[in-house]
Amino acid sequence: MKLDFSGSNGPSSYTPPYVKTKAIKAAAKGHEAEIARAVGIHWRGRDHICCPYPDHDDNNPSWRLMASGLAICTCCEGGRIRFSMWS
User: Fold this and answer.
1) What is the DSSP string of 22-69?
2) What residues does each domain of the chain span?
3) Who's near 59: CB < 8 A, 6+ residues apart?
4) pLDDT tens digits for 56-87?
5) What's the pTM?
6) What is the distance between the alpha carbons of residues 71 and 66, in angstroms, rounded to a whole number?
């Protein structure tokens, strides 16, 4: 079956998959490190790494992923910046 996303041939039979936020959070819980690695963050599960955020100039390893799924970056002026994996 060929899917047409252009809409030029009338309504498409394709419906994009949808997963409720609560369900995906539950499915991902405990897999945060695997997810970080899958999106290209070279997290080894301990210590700190250089911040993976492209707009953060990090000369000293300052990023870490907490067991809770919270990523903490201390490379920016002004202290800690916290990012939830699920924001």
Assistant:
1) HHHHHHHTT-HHHHHHHTT----SSS-B----TT---SS--EEE-TTS
2) 21-84
3) 50, 75
4) 888 889 888 888 888 888 887 766 666 665 55
5) 0.62
6) 6
